[in-house]
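Structure (tokenized):
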């Protein structure tokens, strides 16, 4: 059964209370307010990193589609990206990056 995900577009960023590290191709995220660790697999890490670097969801989709066009359909790829972003938003690991917000990105 296909998971129904709201429309995901635009830019997203890591909130200030999230610490992010890459370990052997996977991402480890610590939610400082909740003291909970999260992990992302290598593809989730690529998506998270691209978003953190300021790419839009559309840019992430295009870049990943060129990387995985022989392995997944465009529709499935977009669905998977939207599901990941929706999950990260729900857990407070991403937030919408609106134009009026000054992005305070940190390099780790």
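Design, position by position:
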């Amino acid at each position: 059964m296909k998971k129904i995900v709201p429309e995901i577009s635009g830019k997203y960023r890591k909130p200030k209370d999230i610490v992010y590290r890459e370990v052997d191709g996977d991402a480890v995220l610590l939610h400082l307010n909740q003291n909970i660790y999260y992990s992302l697999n290598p593809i989730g890490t690529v998506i998270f990193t691209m978003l953190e670097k300021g790419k839009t969801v559309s840019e992430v989709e295009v870049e990943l589609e060129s990387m995985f066009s022989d392995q997944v359909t465009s529709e499935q790829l977009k669905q998977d990206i939207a599901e990941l972003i929706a999950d990260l938003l729900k857990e407070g690991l991403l937030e919408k990056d609106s134009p009026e917000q000054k992005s305070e990105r940190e390099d780790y």
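Reviewer-requested clarification: The chain has a mean pLDDT of 85. Residues 12-95 form a domain with the Outer Surface Protein A; domain 3 fold (CATH 3.90.930.60).
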